[in-house]
Amino acid sequence: MEYHSYYIVFPEGDAQQIRHPLDIGNIVDMNGNLYEDENRLHPKLIAYRVSGYSKKINFKEIDHYYRLAILNADEVTEELLYRTLEEKNRKEMLNKVYTNLEKKLRNKKWSLWK
């Protein structure tokens, strides 16, 4: 059995243990919690982006270190805009796919059962 430990490493060099793994590019708060909800992410809050990863293996203990880079207010605002545009584009693409499927089914050019 292997024991995994996860740490976030702040830009100043301090390390803090967290309970879960992260991915590069994730945006986290100062406790390592993900900012998944746009309502929680705000330009006035301290936010970090996971910018690097390293792993140290010592027999059955594996330590995962996630290097953080602090985000300024402009970068957080850009991230919020990107997330909202990405969600909007995803909804538009799904609507196009659904309308095309409906048209094909109505015209009987395409059938689910062949």
Instruction: Report the total helices.
Output: 1
**Structural class estimated from helices and strands:** alpha+beta
Question: What spatial order of strands do you see in the largest sheet?
Answer: 2-1-5-4-3
The low-confidence parts are: none
User: How many domain units?
Assistant: 1
Mean pLDDT across residues: 85
Question: Explain this structure to me?
Answer:
- With 114 residues, the protein is α+β, with helices and mostly antiparallel strands.
- The chain has one domain (3-107).
- 31% of the residues lie in helices and 32% in strands.
- It has one helix at 73-107; strands at 3-9, 15-18, 27-28, 47-58, 61-71.
- It has a 5-stranded mixed β-sheet.
- It is flat and about 65 Å long.
- The chain starts with a strand and ends in a 7-residue tail after the last helix.
Q: Brief description of this entry?
A:
The chain has 1 helix and 5 strands. The chain has 114 residues and is α+β, with helices and mostly antiparallel strands.
